[in-house]
Amino acid sequence: MASKSRGLLPGTVDLVVLQTLTAGAKHGFAVSRSIRARSNGVLDLQDAALYQALHRMEKSGWVASEWGISEKGKRAKFYHLTEEGGGRLSEEATFWRRYAAAVADVLEPMPTEG
Amino acid sequence: MAGDYKRAFRLNRRRAGDARGAVDDELALHIEMCVDELIEQGWAPDAARQEAIRQFGDVEQTRTYCTDMQTRRGRGERRSMVADDLRQDLVYAVRALFRAPGYAALVIITLAFGIAANTTIFSVMNPYLFRPLPYGDADRLVHVTQVDPVTGWHMARFSSPIVEDWKARTRTLESVAAYSYRGANLTGPEGAETLTVSYVSADLFEVLDATPVLGRTFASEEGGPGGQDVVVLSESLWQRRWTGDPAVIGRVIQVDGVPHTVVGVMQEDFVFPFGGVRMWLPIREDPTATARGPRVPYLMVGRMAPGATRESVERELTSVQAELGAMYPAQDGKWRGVTVLPMRQALNFVWDVVSVGFTVLLVAVVFVLAIACVNVAGLTLARGSSRTRELSVRSALGAPRGRVVRQLLAESLVLALVGGVLGVTLSYAAAAVIGPLIPEDLYRVGKISIDGTVLVFSLLVTLATPLLFGLAPALAATRRSLSDGLKEGSKSSASATTSRGRRALVTIQVALAVVLTTGAGLMLRSFSAVQGLDVGFTPDRVVVATVQPPQADYSLDEVKAYVARATEELQALPGVRSASASLYIPLNHETPAAQIATRETSGLPAEEWPVAVPNYPYPGYFETMGIPLLAGRTFSPADNVDAERVVIVSQAMAERYWPGGSPIGETLLTGEPTDFQELTVIGVVGTVRHQDLEGPSLGTQIYIPALQGGGRRHFLLARTDGDPASLIAETRSTLRGLDPNLPVIIRPMSDIVAENTLQWSLGAVFLAVFSGGALLLATLGIYGTISFGVSQRRREMGVRMALGASRADVRRVIVGEGLRLTGVGVATGFVLAVVMAQLIAALLYGVSPLDPLTLGGVLMLFIAVGALASWIPAERASRTNPTTVLRTE
Question: Which residues pair with B302 in a beta bridge?
Fold first, then answer.
């Protein structure tokens, strides 16, 4: 499934999406544009992958949804974080921070001997 | 955990179809928002759409994936996908329609009227043409009639010896029963009334295979010479007179003053031989003791033996008749062929009119429904063009075209179903109004009502309408959305398709409305022709009282005395100009026949003696009925049994048998070569329409003084100077004063005449209502199309006016267009009307189906309507401000 999100590493899609939802309920398009804006366009999350992730996480119970009216007056599906999703986010975020720090550490130039 | 429970609960309940629709909605919205964003960034609409879809990635795979996630669909659930899809389509349709309440309401109301018209007419036809006869295995029942060689009439009647001879000889009929009907008086503590009763063979109910609801039918020994005074009641009489009291069985009631024991009550839907018959009594005649004479009171029904067909029965009975003719040449020899008819057709007196009339009405309501559908199709087409964008997103998401068409059809279906329910509700009310308008004596099974058959018919009609009004617009809308996508600039080409479609629809609508209006016009012309028809007497201001003094209370001489006394008292009433009586009256659905001859023709064989319509009036009859005396004198009280036998003839009769000379003083023979009376002609009176208003009248009429003949049933007649309605009450109290136990039926003569014009008055009313609706819809259609065209062409109008065209010029252009549109419709309609002329021709009176006055009137009407309907948009267009239009567009 993650194979479709070519722009992001496996496992990171969920993290990014969950993080975006911490600011409040959003519909899919808003999630997509929010990620694009916050990563300055670096994180290229394909819409197909975004929606698959949203639905997968909804099934897992990390996010929940309800139908509402979008800012342009259309009927839209709004997603919000569940408690479970919040817990999952902090676990993942902790892992990614440690992982990123570890990778960063490893990427430091090797100290020369002597 | 509560959240988990809730989620699980919801997910388990969710249907695959719902989930798919929800996913589609979600993804469609996303793409639409992307497109909007891209357009804001300066992309062209079609390119924006392609880019949005490209950016999205694999739409179809995502759609499937998300749906799977939503439903956790297993293998078993896949099978129910079709049902789910349908359910989803319907749910969507309802939602979509709530978003367009104006459109939905208009469509529902239009369809409701169309469906109501169809349901109502079908519910009226149903008991006459379709509802199963209330007899067991009714397909094997036939009505047997002979053809009278003299008059050519069917329904010739039989004497009881002939019935017995046929019964003994036939093999193709397993059983045969005879019947007759007449008026009878029912008296008792419940009041006196005159009813129609039927005398039947004791085994009639077995032959018909009809069972009573209460008690029993006749035992075989109750008929014939040794029979009993027993009677079977109709359910309606039982309910009305005895309030459904089961204790009526065994009760003794007075029929024509003779005590009869009630043995049974028939089922509610039992009808024989027609609706007005309230009681059945056994025939008590002894066939072996009856002469094979001219007394032929009976009609005959039979049940075909297994394997027999109407043709085989007809062949066999014809040869039986030939055999009997050889045995009794004087009596049976004078009958010609035998005709075997199905029961329904034979029992309905006016089958030809009924079957053709109902066909015309059914065609008319189908037209009404077609016009309604065309109207709705126009609305749907317009709605489709405004939904292009929504539909194109659906297609872009991978919904196949068939799926989108189905979705649109589901909307039409929902509208049709709501319209159908409303229409059927309306038709309940309409059927209740129409039912009583049709005389009860027209053979029908049960009441005019909305029953199961009618509901099935309405359901089929309702289900057919979406295909008529929804399919073409759905195909048009999806074709457009596939080719044009989300192109904003494609507005004009889409509207061109819509505009062409609307024009075609309006043409059809106008054409159908023209056919209906022509039909209504022809019926109105027939009605007015028949109203203006000289019936030979003046029915206005004449009141008719029907009395039938019973044998038990009155001898024939006492009847004459009663009639003389009643006439005298009626004459004395204030406002009564003259009063009289007779044994028959014209246009009362009874045509007696008498064979006649002059001195010169008396040598002819019996079957060549011509027939005339006899009547037996009392003195003062011609004055009271307003029949002019043309020569000689009318009857006086002196023309009684002791005086010379005299006769008055009609003018048509005089011209036919004594051409060029006066018949006064001539001799007329009536009866048969071996048994006739000689009558002296004493007068000539105007010819009246006796049998009906249509066709060649049997104008040869003879009048024989009632005082020289005799009969039991009489029509008492009184002509007033004032309002005949006010005379009815006085007539009733006068006659009640003479004999409180004698039932009387009192009606104005004009009502009796009006019954003869019912087919035209009812036809004109129905068709006028239908064509009025059709005209209204067609007007709206023309108006809508021209308005739409004007709104699309504001720029053109602006340019024209900028170039110097005046307001009048603009109006002329638009109205001209409306008239062209109308003209094409009218021309098409006239072609249709000519094609259908033969259908309605049989129903018309004194007017050709291509009557130029009617067609001209219809043409003028539609030109006026076309001009009117396009004048309003033309006026609007002429107020176009050229500079505003040119700047904004």
Answer: B142, B176
For chain A, the C-alpha Rg in angstroms (whole number) is 17
- Say if B30 is an interface residue toward chain A (CB within 8 Å): yes
* Nearest C-alpha neighbor of B526 from the set B295, B756, B212: B756
DSSP B437: G
A9 belongs to a structural domain: yes
User: pLDDT category, B650, cuts 50, 70, 90?
Assistant: very high
Nearest CB to B56 within list A47, A61, A74: A47
Structure tokens at B279: 């009681």
Tell me which residue of B297, B293, B298 sits closest to B332, measured CA to CA: B293
Kindly compute the dihedral angle of the four CA atoms of residues B653, B657, B658, B664, in this order, to the nearest 10 degrees: -60
Interface test with B, best of A1, A13, A50, A55 (most B CBs within 10 A): A55
**Residue B21: is its pLDDT beyond 60?**
yes
Quick one: which H or E segment has residue B772? Answer: helix B758-792
CB B680 within 8 A of CB B599: no
What is the distance between the alpha carbons of residues B624 and A107, in angstroms, rounded to a whole number? 129
Residue A52 to chain B, least CA–CA distance (Å): 6
Percent of chain B at pLDDT exceeding 90 = 32
Which residue range(s) make up the domain with A34?
Answer: 2-107
- Token pair recorded at residue B471: 């399919």
At B483, which amino acid appears? S
Phi, psi at residue B280, to the nearest 5°? Answer: -125, 135
Q: Give the residue-averaged pLDDT of B795-820.
A: 85
Instruction: Give the per-residue pLDDT at B331.
Output: 67
**How many domains does one find in chain A?**
1
CA distance A17 to chain B (A): 16
* Helices marked H in B532-674: 556-572, 621-625, 651-657
Contacts of residue A75 in chain B, CB cutoff 8 Å? 25, 29
In-domain check, residue A112: no
Query: Exposure string (b/e) for B723-735, b if CB count within 10 Å is 16 or more?
Result: ebeebbebbeebb
Give the closest residue to B387 by CA, choosing from B465, B472, B473. Answer: B473
Domain assignment present for A34: yes
Task: Label each residue of B512-555 as H, E or C.
Answer: HHHHHHHHHHHHHHHHHHHHCCCCCCCCCCEEEEEECCCCCCCC
Which candidate, B456, B460, B462, places its Cα nearest to that of B420?
B462
SS3 B308: coil
Residue B730 has pLDDT above 80, yes or no: yes
Of B33, B62, B72, nearest to A51 by CB-CB distance is B62
**DSSP assignment of B844-865, as one string?**
-SSS-TT-HHHHHHHHHHHHHH
- Measured CB to CB, residues of chain A less than 8 Å from chain B are 1, 4, 27-29, 32, 46-49, 51-52, 55-56, 58-59, 61, 64, 70, 72, 74-77, 82-84
Residue-wise pLDDT for B193-219, tens only, equals 888 899 999 999 999 999 999 999 999
| SS3 sequence of B316-383 | HHHHHHHHHHHHCCCCHHHCCCEEEEEHHHHHCCCHHHHHHHHHHHHHHHHHHHHHHHHHHHHHHHHH
Please name the helix (run of DSSP H) or strand (run of DSSP E) that holds residue A25, with its range, or none: none
CB B60 within 8 A of CB B398: yes
CB contact under 8 A, B66 and A55: yes
pLDDT tens-digit series, residues B431-461? 888 888 787 778 888 888 888 999 999 999 9
Does residue A14 lie within any of the structural domains? Answer: yes
DSSP A109: P
**Chain B: closest CA distance from residue A26 (Å):** 12
B547: nearest Cα among B521, B571, B530, B566: B566
pLDDT of B282 higher than 90: yes
What is the CATH number for A62? Answer: 1.10.10.10
- Cβ separation of A61 and B7 shorter than 8 Å? yes
How many whole angstroms separate alpha carbon B278 and alpha carbon B486?
73
B69:A47 CB<8 A: no
